[in-house]
Amino acid sequence: MPVGQIPAITGKLRKRLILDLSVALGGGTALGYAYWYGIHIPSVQRRDAYYAKLQSERGA
Fold first, then answer.
1. What is the pLDDT at residue 33?
2. What does each C-alpha distance from 45 to 7, 11, 48, 49, 51 come to in angstroms?
3. Is residue 18 domain-resident?
4. What are the start-end ranges of the H helices in the chain?
5. Does a structural domain hold residue 22?
6. Cα separation, 18 vs 53, whole angstroms
7. 15 within domain boundaries
8. Is-contact 23 17, C-beta < 8 A?
9. pLDDT tens digit sequence for 15-59
């Protein structure tokens, strides 16, 4: 290669784009599952238990 020439960068943008998309989708999915099963489901269960208790007290 002659002095002063920069070698061509081929395929780096595509590889980086695929990596970025994979990390974003994988991380988003993991955080979505963590929220759903770690926060949402337990809060719904607490709410349902509260209303079931309230209903049983009203019926008694």
1. 98
2. 60, 50, 5, 6, 10
3. no
4. 12-35, 41-59
5. no
6. 51
7. no
8. no
9. 889 999 999 999 999 999 999 999 999 999 999 999 999 999 998
Measure the N-to-C terminal CA separation of the chain; round to a whole number of Å: 90
Domain that holds residue 55: 32-60
Report how far residue 43's alpha carbon sits from residue 25's, in angstroms, rounded to the nearest whole number.
26
> In the prediction, which pLDDT does 7 show?
72
Distance in angstroms (rounded) separating the CA atoms of residues 58 and 52: 10
pLDDT-derived band at 1, boundaries 50, 70, 90: low
In single-letter form, the type of residue at position 26 comes to G
Q: Phi and psi at residue 53, in whole multiples of 5°?
A: -65, -45
